[in-house]
Amino acid sequence: MNRALLLIVCDFLLISLLALARFDSPKEDLLVQESGSEELQNNTDQDLIDVLKYYLETEENENRREIEELETDKDALEGLLRETRDDLKEREEIATRLESEKKNLTQRYKEKSEQLITTDKERAALIENLSITREQAGANKERAKLLQEQLQSREQELAQQERDLLSAIQARINVEREKQKVITELKIQETENKLLEQNLIAAKAEIDTVRVEKDVIQQQATKLAEGVTNLTEQSTLIQEEIRQLQPRSPNSIFNEFKTNRVYLSFDAESRGIIGLRSRRYDAKSILISDGKSVYALVHTHDTPFRLSDEGAGLANVTGSLNVGDKQMSILQVGFLTADPRMLVVAVSIQVGEQLGIHAFSVSKEPLKYPEAVLIGSDEGYFGETDFKLDHRGDRYLMMQTRLFNQLFGEFSPSRSDLVFAKTGSFMGLMINKQYCALIDNFKVDEKFIIGSNFNSKQSEAVVSRQYKRLLNLPLELQ
Q1: How far is 96 from 100, CA to CA, in rounded Å?
Q2: CA–CA separation, 128 vs 238, rounded Å?
Q3: b/e for 452-475, b at 16 or more Cβ within 10 A?
Q4: What are 197-211's pLDDT values in tens digits?
Q5: How far apart are CA 33 and CA 37, in angstroms?
Q6: Which member of 69, 301, 397, 456 lies 3.0 to 4.6 Å from 436 by CB, making a disulfide possible if both were Cys?
Q7: pTM passes above 0.85
Q8: pLDDT digits (tens, 9 = 90+) for 322-370
């Protein structure tokens, strides 16, 4: 029973009690009116019961309506809950899709960032080359003309880099527009966009600096009158450095190899049971430059100084380096520190120029590309092959070999083959069928004289020590 109904019942009872009370009647009247009071009391009770029934029915009807309303609200809430669950599932799908798009956009941004870093490094190298050229420049009008052509070429490259940067920024802006759907990434993308804009400003400032330097160099070039040879050498070095940055096709490298082939010949006399025996050793090679000197490199197996024989019995050895009808006598040979099986012959720069042969430069970044160009020592095959650095050190590269290459006629690495980087620079020499000795310098471990001053005991001792060096290497490298 609610509070309002209870108050009504109490008021009704109080009024009934007051109506039945007779405060002014004498005692004798009570006896006379007793029968009438009982009848009134009965009527009052009946009325009270009727009122109570009415209010109970009213309350029951109200409770029934409330229950019906609650059931109606329950159905509505269940429908709303189903709609909420469906909406939540749809939102989860959207969030998953947005997360996938976010990862894709992040990957694209990372690639663009790596491209920008590579561009910055190349630009820094070009600016450094310009600075070196400016400090060492000394030339006449012809030198100034060459320098101006180089500067114009660099200006075009820098302009292309500026366009690439603008393209990268435009691509970044497009990425930003796509990422507007991901609200949580908005601040990060805005920060990255600012960094790209700062890089663009820095690049423009560098370009302006290069242009100013160009004007200064052009002004100085009008006053130069000598040093043409130095500028030509410097220009050649710069062009060579730029060329080494670009990968080349195996056909182009092989063609350059054939054009600049040199031949080493060794005539050896060895002591036998019936007297002296003569034998000729022919080896094919190239000229290699470390920036200071020029060298010809061959495998000891192609010479009289084979380590397996330890140079025993050699009475006299003469040698020559041949290019066409031109010939140079070999007076001294040496074993490289990098590997005892590599025999090197030093050639003066002047002799190299007289022979008219281009010297291959030593690769400054041999591990830049995962493939190398391998050319057979007999020129019978060439092609690209994968390699990886040997886990025991950085002096040997393990070349990929396949049995199918041999079965189907493709190239397969073998001893004495020459290995070039994809840029065309020289990397090393195959010491066996699987490993290549990496060459970045021509430091000699031991050397001796051949020709008229050949000392058989000295050569035998040197070859014997080199053989011991070979035995100290791991078995698969021998």
Answers
A1: 6
A2: 11
A3: eebebeebbebbeebbebbeebee
A4: 777 786 677 677 767
A5: 6
A6: 397
A7: no
A8: 888 888 899 999 999 999 999 999 987 777 777 778 889 898 888 888 8
